[in-house]
Amino acid sequence: MTNNEKIDRQIEEAFNSIDKIKKATATPYLLTRINARLSNHPKNFWEITAVFISRPAVLVVGLCLILVVNISVLLLNKSYSVNTATERLINSVDDEDEYSTTFATNDNFENPEP
Amino acid sequence: MNQSESELIKLLKQGAQEAFKRVVDLYQDMVYNTILSIVQNEADAEDITQDVFVRVHESAGSFKGDSKFSTWLYRIAITKALDHEKKRKRKKRFAFIQSLFSEKGEAEYHPGEFNHPGVLLENKEKASELFKALHQIPDNQRIAFTLNKIEGLNNQEVAAIMNISFYAVESLLARAKNSLKKKLTNYYLLHSAK
């Protein structure tokens, strides 16, 4: 018998091995276990939500999200405060110029004659 | 659907515990055997069977009666079993990544050899090889083959469960046989070379 014929025979035997297969039977306590599972199963919206939130994956993702939001708010505030400080500095310089101009104009008004 | 079955489903929809008990008694082996043939692990199959009946208890009201009750049950069982398979594959991939960083350099997850309890003793070894090959072929081919050859359903019933045409089932079964032959040929070639 050649190797190919031997393999063909083995394949045929493998296919035939399940010809008279019987059905596997579930354990006798299946109903008791299902009932136990049903009694522990979350029933209302809040229970389902609590179970969902307490999943490790959801917890980790939630914590990461909070961290990302916090960091981004911090960074945004930092750049905002730098911008505000620069703006204030510019404004104060402008005010000073304006004040001196006004002051000079007032001087001129109060002393119209040279 | 016969009259007693439709009466049973009606009671189940109303939430009658006796009806639920009867449904579990009637269909537990059918559900368990299907799931076991797909996941090829007895403990997992039992867990998923429980899941299936919990789902039946919760969503009996959504059964419209368009198909047979057993068809609806088969669909839930197959979906749950395939979901479990996906999770297992994800774990396997994660175990592989873990193995890259572990000291031993070995994967933590080792699926064991599967022996279906319904196979005759003299056929155990050959059946185990077939189940190993069955686990490696595409899902739709595997489901069609399992329902037809292991559950003993005819092509019409398989078509109703898989929601495909009769001819699509025939084609799937032919492709499943070819895929299995290829897997088994590789397996036996490898073993005869050793």
Protein topology:
The complex is a heterodimer of chains A (114) and B (194).
Chain A: H1 3-16, H2 30-40, H3 45-53, H4 56-110
Chain B: H1 3-13, H2 17-39, H3 42-59, H4 69-101, H5 124-134, H6 139-150, H7 155-162, H8 166-193
Structure description:
With 114 residues, chain A is mainly alpha-helical. Chain A has one domain. Chain A contains four helices and no strands. Chain B has 194 residues and is mainly α. Helices cover 74% and strands 0% of the residues of chain B. Chain B is globular, with a radius of gyration of 19 Å. The chains are: A mainly alpha (114), B mainly alpha (194). Chains A and B meet through helix 1 and helix 2 of A and helix 2, helix 3, helix 5 and helix 8 of B.
Biggest sheet architecture of chain B:
none
Radius of gyration of chain A: 41 Å
Q: Tally of extended strands of chain A?
A: 0
Largest interface summary: A-B, 26 and 40 residues
Unreliable segments of 5+ consecutive residues of chain A: none
Order of helices and strands of chain A: HHHH
Shape category of chain A: elongated
CATH top level assignment of the largest domain in chain B: Mainly Alpha
How many domains comprise the coordinates of chain B? 2
Number of strands of chain B: 0
Name the helix and strand elements of chain B from N-terminus to C-terminus, one letter apiece.
Answer: HHHHHHHH
Question: Mind describing the biggest β-sheet of chain A?
Answer: none
